[in-house]
Amino acid sequence: MDTCRSSSQAPLHFHVPQPPARPGEQPDFSYVEVSDAGAVRRPDPLTDPADITDLSRSLIRVLGNDGIAVGDWDPRADADELRAGLRAMVRTRAYDARMLTAHRQGKASFYMQCTGEEAFAVGHAFALRRGDMFFPTYRQQGWLIARDWPLVTMMCQVYSNDRDPLHGRQMPIMYSANEVDFFTISGNLATQFVQAVGWAMASSISGDHRIASGVVGEGATAEADFHHAMTFAATYRAPVILNVVNNQWAISTFQSVASGGHATFADRALGYGIAALRVDANDYLAVLAATRWAAERARANGGPTLIEWVTYRVGAHSTSDDPSRYRPESEPVSWPLGDPIERLAAHLTAAGEWSAGQQEQLLADCAAEVRAAQQEAEQYGTLLDAHSGDPRSIFEDVFEELPPHLQQQRRWMEKLR
Amino acid sequence: MSAMTMSAALRSAMDVMLERDDRVVVFGEDVGYFGGVFRCTDGLQRKYGTNRVFDTPIAEGGIIGIAVGMGAYGLRPVAEIQFADYVYPGLDQIISEAARLRYRSSAQFTAPLVVRMPCGGGIHGGQTHSQSPEGIFTHVCGLTTIVPSNPYDAKGLLISAIEDNDPVIFLEPKRIYNGPFDGHHERPIVPWAEHPLGEVPDGYYSVPLGAAAVRRTGSDVTVLAYGTMVYVAEAAATESGVDAEIIDLRTLLPLDIDTIVSSVRKTGRCVIIHEATRTSGYGAELSAQVQEACFYNLEAPIERVTGWDTPYPHAQEWDYFPGPKRVAAAFARVLEA
Predict the structure, then answer these.
(1) I need a labelling partner for A334 at 20 to 30 A (CA). Which of A34, A348, B152, B240 fits?
(2) What is the pLDDT of residue A8?
(3) Cβ contacts from A onto B, under 8 A
(4) Which pLDDT value is given to residue A95?
(5) Closest C-alpha among A252, A289, A250 to residue A45
(6) Cross-chain residue pair A398–B254, CB shorter than 8 Å
(7) In the annotation, is B184 catalytic?
(8) Is the previous residue joined to B254 through a cis bond, with omega within 30 degrees of 0?
(9) Contacts of residue B165 in chain A, CB cutoff 8 Å?
(10) The dihedral of CA B147, B149, B154, B156: what is its sign?
């Protein structure tokens, strides 16, 4: 009888989300609802998350198309601070371009750019304090550059050479830089998101004043550790900023495969009772303002904030990826939120604090700086030569001290060299 | 000195370390107010406060994940997984993160954490309250894996584990929380109060990691055992009259191979016992290492007495659990050879 009844209904159909455009089609970003700059209210940072649920559906923006800063979220940063941000973003892009070329020349085995996403990591690095711990993914090299970690050191890691601080043990770009509050990068996605929460819990257990900031891409929000991080952050009101960098793509997979496309990533915070913001991540001023808001909330024991940073992955996922096989070639230039470097330069120019000539000079200076750093780094070796980590070091740091079985295995290896 | 059960000794170890070191924190499911489903953390929250001893959401991946973050901050987390059978959601954090943190950061960041978990069968725990997953952890480089067999060792080893600057997997055979168990389920339980190793110092002491203990000296056969199986081996030796030398490994990795090798060179025979399933179990590693180091001293093939290669059954527990009868049969086989 049941079978008869159900046969009168339409059969079930299986839903698989698709991106709005594939190769050969016109890019379509009509799904991105762009709020006007200044349109979104700035609540008190200690506001009850339930009272700001509208902020998870709108987009915090400071810079309008004319480059003028407007609205409550204007961080009122002075020109020097903004020029420092601009410089760090330009250095980051120049570094990426140089390393991409080095990979193509066979000097490194792998590389990942952050082109188009520089504002989040750079602005975040400037907006947080020394001593706050950043738990990045592999696409926040802008933090290291903003915090003046030496470009040569970064390159030595990418080259796995004699001066690689990680002794050639890690794939390129999996940096670790404790001295600039940058946690060791793992290849396993989202693991650091819950570790950031634990670090923040430890800070509050210890009566410290430091906060943590963790990052996942929108694709990795589907990992269990995203849920773990949100649950533990909410339960213990951990002083942590939980960042979802939504660059629309997880390798070849469009963001709606992670989200279903029915809700924003910021919306996910609401069910956990976590404050949520959704921010134009190509707007450097909005990055500063939103980071400061969440940091103020965390430092005042107001608990965690989830921030969805809306941006676009301009480059390939990695040097092992070809985006022309799954998205329109012209998609990057059609992205409605523009380019973070150009927008900040336009803002400074509109304020009379910058000029086309200065921008040109900055680009040239950064290119030269990166070129010089590369020349120095390559003196210490690349994949093309024999300078890559002392083999004896393979066995170090597995444990604090070498246990007998590793001493023995090291002896076996040495005998055969 | 006090007479302590194994749970009381473990509780005492955490009490001592919470007192000595402000960085030590204890947490897990039902660990705080209630004091743990096996009473191992009883009273600790009342004594040290919710900042130091607290309940967590039911999420093993989250429990280990926050422990890694806390360790990176500089605390010394002692996390509890309620049953070893439920550690699997936390394996990514254990294997990919805790075990690799020091290596991948060249010691910029470390994971000085302990993950305690009740393990083993013999309690009618069925499939998900009886497992012995030690072989998963010994296969992961960067982890120290411990299985104590008595209250004295349990406290001393747990203190060493908490003081260790790297991640330690601390497996507690729940069948022997309250008293030694030799596999004779038909007999009444003997409490730890009647066993010499149930006498435990009240204050601080430690038992070194990576050191085995010879529980019984003998000349016929070397028995490699840990946890509950130490008592099964003792019963098998007594009942069969075989003069077995019983080595309680205590730390599975790093392994005290020297103690093992000198014993096997003396006896010429080796029987390995564990509750865990046979194929690719830790016994396979033990067997390989004994064979590599003692080939010319061996008078017989190395025997392994283990759980069967099946999920742990409920009703058929005593056909599954490697009891003294099965161990004695292995003794007979190696002595006949």
Answers:
(1) A348
(2) 79
(3) 144
(4) 98
(5) A289
(6) no
(7) no
(8) yes
(9) 400
(10) negative
| CB contact B210 to A (< 8 Å) | yes
Question: Mind giving me the DSSP string for A371-408?
Answer: HHHHHHHHHT--TTSS-S--GGGGGTTSSSS--HHHHH
Helix (H/G/I), strand (E/B), else coil: A213: strand
Round to the nearest angstrom and report the end-to-end CA distance of chain A.
77
Instruction: Choose the catalytic residue: B129, B184, B195, B274.
Output: B129
- pLDDT the model gives residue A3: 55
Question: What is residue A416's three-state secondary structure?
Answer: coil
As a whole number of angstroms, the distance between CA A225 and CA A244 comes to 13
According to the model, what pLDDT value does residue B114 have?
98
Q: Is the dihedral of CA B263, B268, B274, B276 positive or negative?
A: positive
Q: Rounded distance, CA B162 to CA A354, Å? A: 56
pLDDT means per 10 residues, chain A with 417 residues, are 66 95 97 94 98 97 96 98 98 98 96 98 98 98 98 97 94 98 97 98 98 98 98 98 98 93 95 98 98 98 98 97 96 97 98 98 98 97 82 94 97 91
Q: Which residues of chain B have pLDDT under 70?
A: none
Structure tokens belonging to residue B307: 């759980």
**What residues contact B185, with CB distance under 8 A and at least 6 apart?**
B122, B317, B318
Which pair of structure tokens corresponds to residue A245?
């960098």
Distance from the Cα of B307 to chain A's closest Cα (Å) equals 27
A196 and A135 Cβ atoms separated by less than 8 Å: yes
